[in-house]
Protein: Prolyl endopeptidase
Amino acid sequence: MAMARPFLLTSRVSTLRRVQIVHSFLFSSVCRRGQPSPPSTSFSLPSESPPAATKVPFAASAHGRTWQDPYHWMRKTADPDFIDHLRRENTYAAGFMVDTEQLQRTLVREMRSRLPAKVSTPPERWGPWLYYQYIPEGKEYPVLCRRSEASDSGFVNKLLCFASGHSERKEQILLDWNEIAEQYGYVHVGACRVSPDHNFIAYTVDVNGSEQFLLRIKDLGDGSIVQRSEVEGVVSLAWARDGRTLFYTVSDENQRPYRVLCTEVYVIDAAYPLDGLDRICKRMPGVQVFVEHHYDSFYILTNAPLSENKESSSVRSYYLITCKVEHIHLPDLQRIIVPSEDVSFHDMDIFNQHLVLSKRLDVEDLNPWYFPVPTDLCSIAPGSNHDFMSSVYRVVLSSPVMPDVIVDYNMSEQTFSIVHQEEIKSADTHEHLVSECSEVKNDKNFIGVERWEDFSSKYYCERKQVISHDGIKVPLTIMYSRNAWKKGESPGLLHGYGAYGEAMDTSWCSDRLSLLDRGWVMAFADVRGGGDSSWHESGTGLTKPNSIHDFLSCASFLIDKGYVHNGQLGATGTSAGGLLVGAAINMKTDLFCAAILKVPFLDVCNSLMDPSLSLTILDYEEFGNPHIEKQFECIRSYSPYDNIPRAACLPSVLVTASYNDSRQTALITLPFSSLPVCWMNTNANMV
Structure:
């Protein structure tokens, strides 16, 4: 961790190239001609063969094993042959997709037509200011603004009027992403923090797509950038209470945070930031600690062992404890709330008079007097909630069939108000699609209160429990149109991720309507490796194959139960989700007809054996350490690049990657697509 006074940063400019790799592996449409075809199915074969990459003999070895890797040379991404092969891949991809160009234009037009002309967030109060963002008409990026609350008590109404084009707005622009983008051609703002005294804003910016963020500090009094020094690779930041001192962490050349070298938690007196660090608790494997300060006390959310036997359980639920600031070093802290074994807290927010705890529950278990929720599957995400003195807690409600709703909940009065809900228009008529209000659990308790609107009358959303290979139940979310879906005949797309404890994102996305209206089924498999701590841990390291078997079980369920036609199920995954899908299509090549892999993690074994790559060391905890023989054997058993079957008909696959991507570069994806082409060109039985 480092401390700094305000300073300015600049950055390097480089080119970010998008690589599209499309292969109908082994001409899978030809292989599948013996299978039953759904109605109105068409597929055009490419006019030319996929580009074949150069093979260079290379013997890789580990733990007494040796194998050939003819595409190991691709790790030299500056090699002219590598660049040339990327160009040929892009040319082939463009030719392969040429007969879909009209459909692509139609889909883009539909998706754009559903977006509101102006996008703005409701103001959120923090101290004497109301902060908000909006995207100016005709612009691509947002603008962060504020206005003094005292200057106009009717500001919220005026802002809503502005969104309709009926009012002028007087405001202070704090940060305009569009100005940065005009200067550099690209912008991605990472962290953004206003100082506690509201006089400065610190933000990190990536202007070339490298994900190497640079810190800038802007004086909100005169709008100038504070000229002090340059720091690259800033990961996170926080202000001290004086509003003049900034704490930040930085990453090394491989984008790993390296100046905070342990996972222990320390506190700093924000009023006296130069007094040094004070450790909250000792580091312990598998234990996390989240700390909030409330006057003379600390509130701590942790999964530390409750018993003296610290090795009694490797997976622990989170619970809440507290202590006085001066007693932080005492071994016994006061326990406030310890949930039952099957429940774990996920987040905590603290206010002057209220403490908010978040936990995941079934809808049937919710007490609607605490907070009303729609009857359909939904998520509740906290807003920024900067104002410590407020009694209003802002959240965002979202579901697959309900546009996001911003709700303010008055914790003192136990009442809520809908601040904003996005309006969605029909792609054909430009009429508002949302016409019916969603029901609230125990609806009789909310007579006369404001309701949110959803699409549940047009689109159906189900939550199923699918039995996996070992008897474990895997949650599967299924969406389809009530009018367009046909049992046993509809095509489907199964989404998966299953890593880093991240649950599948099933929040509202208007783009899905274009597929749903065409009869598609959209499904989301919450496989092991995602979700809460126990679910995550049961899909990591040596248990990572569970994620793949869960995904395959969900795919089979969609076909067996008639949700999707046998022969028209596709799969898609991004990054670590690409590993999941790639491994799944290797294991059961006949289950999927197509796959979309976005910046996928495919060459798992070779990548984890290369400590120079940015995520390698961090990923040992997630996927395992291949330098340990048992873990190497496990990784090798599912790594997509190492397990492409030779004597099988593979589905058609679209792979996308970025040449300068700092996480999943083209070198991790390109060998995966090159091997089947090599085999196809050398074995006539494969065509």
Notes: The chain has a mean pLDDT of 79. Residues 315 and 533 are 7 Å apart (CA to CA).
